[in-house]
Amino acid sequence: MSDNSIIQKRFSELTTTELYAVLKLRTDVFYVEQKVDESELDDRDREPSTEHFWLADGPRVIAYLRVLEDAEPEHLDAARVIGRVVVSAEHRGQGHAQVLLARVVEQFGGEAMLLHAQSYTAGLYAKFGFEPFGPEFSEAGILHTTMYRAGIR
What we know:
By secondary structure, this protein is of the alpha+beta class. The chain contains three helices and seven strands. It has a seven-stranded mixed β-sheet with strand order 1-2-3-4-5-7-6. It is globular, with a radius of gyration of 15 Å.
């Protein structure tokens, strides 16, 4: 899969069809499959600085993540926060999340970044320079690890 197949948009640029496809993937995985019972729609999607990245197969979104920009960093200097990383069940193990992460690191790698990974996926993020810190924590019944990546200038 080439880097050119990545779609990147801000909320105001999303079509209703794209928004539906993104939300369908997120709810199919987080609510239906993983039984997450916390709010999926947190208003951060609509913030002007939020960047949405995804891969599509026709009208379907098969992998997605978003990059937020916090006014005040949660940890050290990491104002950029990667979140909602998700790949459809039938497309897992094919490197789609890595393609999206590589684009984000290419675009924002000069800035420090933070993410809250489901602990079993921490190895994926370590490949991109993210290092775990702090204790594991449970969110919606799933163990998570907070990870930080220093900006590389």
